[in-house]
Amino acid sequence: MIMPNLDLDSLLDQLADAIRQAPFFSADSKMIGLRTGGEYIALALAERLQLNEAIGVLDSSFYRDDFATSGLSAQVQPSNIPWDVQDQTIILVDDVVHTGRTIRAAMNEIFDYGRPARIILACLIDRQGGRELPIQPDFYAYATADALRFKLQGPSPLSLRIELLEDTL
Ligand SMILES: O=P(O)(O)OC[C@H]1O[C@H](OP(=O)(O)OP(=O)(O)O)[C@H](O)[C@@H]1O
User: Fold this and answer.
1) Tens of pLDDT, residues 106-150
2) Is the pTM of this model over 0.90?
3) Residue 4: which of 156, 166, 164 has the closest Cα?
4) DSSP summary character for residue 75
5) DSSP tally for the chain: helices H, then strands E
6) Which residues have C-beta atoms less than 6 Å from ligand 1?
7) Pocket test for ligand 1, best of 61, 64, 73, 96 (most atoms within 8 A of CB)
8) Strands 148-153 and 159-164
9) pLDDT at 40 (0 to 100)
10) Where do the Phosphoribosyltransferase domain residues begin and end (predicted)?
11) Which protein residue's CA is at the shortest distance from atom 17 of ligand 1?
12) Which domains occur in the chain, in start order?
């Protein structure tokens, strides 16, 4: 397997361009990033898209259905959505979508705040082949079904670490 050589800035530019051209998009669009990687991606996208409103941030750890088995990270922080979600079109952003469970948890949490008109899903990396729920990104910058793990580190500098999954070595 060839390790992909990904340029983070180009991927973010591509993702921002695709969202900008979508019919639903305006500078008043509302964006939510999922801690931690998704928050960094959402901040980078919001800057490129020159959004009028600050991004919301969710930490869906409490909502994950594997919370009991995986435990809770010591770094869980409160969620913060600085605007009313009711009837909004929300762009939900994460760095990686793999099983889909994090996105499922995030959507549950969003509905606790109100009933959005629509949720659009954008991610940097669509890790395909391991989906456990019928959740697909509307926008992604890079997709792969290879046995790779992606870890976004940031916020500044923002970098993407790519590792081969151990059980395939
Ligand atoms: O589709 P899933 O199988 O749920 O996986 C995707 C999630 O996994 C990673 O988060 P992680 O728990 O590693 O936290 P991080 O954002 O702090 O890296 C990634 O950032 C996504 O949020």
Assistant:
1) 999 999 999 999 999 999 999 999 999 999 999 999 999 999 999
2) yes
3) 164
4) T
5) 4, 7
6) 34, 36-38, 94-102
7) 96
8) antiparallel
9) 97
10) 28-136
11) 36
12) 8-21+29-168 (3.40.50.2020)
